[in-house]
Amino acid sequence: MDADVGIIGAGVVGCAVALALARRDASVVLLEAEAEPGLAASGTNSGIFHTGFDSAPGELETELILRSAALRDPVLDALDVPVLRCGALLRPLAEDQRETVAALAANAERNGVEARIRDDGALEVPGEAVTDPVSYTLALAGAAERLGAKLHTEFRVVAIDRTDERLIFEGAHGEQVGCSVAVNCAGLRADEVARLVGDDSFEIYPRKGEFLVFPPPDDEPLERILLPVPTNRTKGVLVFPTIDGRVLAGPTAVDQEDKDDWSVRPQARDEILPKATAVWPALEGADPIAAYAGLRPAGRGVNYLIGPSSACPRLVNVAAIRSTGLSASLGIAERVCEMVERLGIPLGPERFLEPGDRSPSSRPWWQRTAEYRAA
To answer: Domains in the chain, ordered, with CATH?
Structure first.
């Protein structure tokens, strides 16, 4: 099978890129090593659509988060993706945190994101929202397929051969796919894919983020995302509602080397619960009904690496997309379309999205994630 563009990795970013290209009449093949899209980092994150209120001005990551926010609502509406538009609240828990909160409010203003400091010193960010990240990823994949993209699951790329005009992907079972331009959206394995064309310019390592899932205490639903005051290393432990009425707390931030270790550490509960209780005292004494871990594809010394490989210009690397990939996915896809067009793939005007269905099972996404990774 041949296509104009071959995309490696059907996480949320790969699916967004596939849809953006298919909407502009490129022939697209989307290759996923797992049995379904969204079974790795995209299905193990928080599901929060961040506004970018706290993102560093001038950074590519910030630019793409803000651009995605401008692109997102028509896509969500057309694809009927569930969204809880609940907003977020960041409350200083000590007097010395008020300066940080004020700085975040000023940062939000620089980024053009609505936020305000209340009389009690808490920062309100009304644009923050929660989705089902699996439904969102599958909706993007389904919409791309309806526009002609071809999805191949259980296709793990183990070799990339080059001819004068084509790149040939070879799968682990001997299958082959050819394309003119390739896009590397392989997440945790993006560095390994790049090395298949001799590109060793970056390295990806897994940063584990563990989450606990709770029923709402006393059947009182949580009405908004509760954010801690961040530190230089991490945004800290959040407490937030899910689409299906549960409450999530997390994540941790554990740097590791093993890209296949999705386990929840025994000490994760003791690390999360006190911090979560400080943010929302209603969780005091609560018992989680589930736990899961996500592995964020962090880059060593690099963040949001998006561009043609120096070793193979027809391979566009989209790598080191950390935990904000869900929020930035549409902006990333738009940026990749520009690069693909510069590499000689003609793109037409954007086509309308066609409603349809590519739904996960009836299980909540966090349960699907926990069960899959525990298997």
So the answer is: 2-374 (3.50.50.60)
Name the token pair of 108.
């939000």
The pTM of the full predicted model, rounded to 2 decimals, is 0.96
Q: Distance between CA 190 and CA 325 in Å, rounded?
A: 14
Comparing C-alpha atoms, which of 4, 24, 42, 96 is closest to residue 323?
Answer: 42
Q: 78: how many CB neighbours lie within 10 A of its CB?
A: 15
Q: pLDDT at position 201, please?
A: 97
Kind plus residue range of the DSSP H or E element containing 38 = none
With CA atoms as reference, report the closest residue to 198 among 34, 314, 304: 314
Angle at 15 between CA 75 and CA 242, to 5 degrees: 65
Provide mean pLDDT across the span 274-285: 95
Handedness of CA 353, 12, 273, 102 (dihedral sign): negative
Distance CA 166, CA 338 (A): 19
Burial 84-123 (b: 16+ CB within 10 A, else e): bebbbbbbbeeeebeeebeebbebbeebebebebeeeeeb
211 within 8 A of 248, measured Cβ to Cβ: yes
Residue 323 identity (one-letter amino acid): S
| Per-residue confidence band for 143, with pLDDT thresholds at 50, 70 and 90 | very high
Burial pattern 41-67, b for ≥16 Cβ within 10 A else e, equals bbbbbbbbbbbbbbbeeeebbbbbbbb
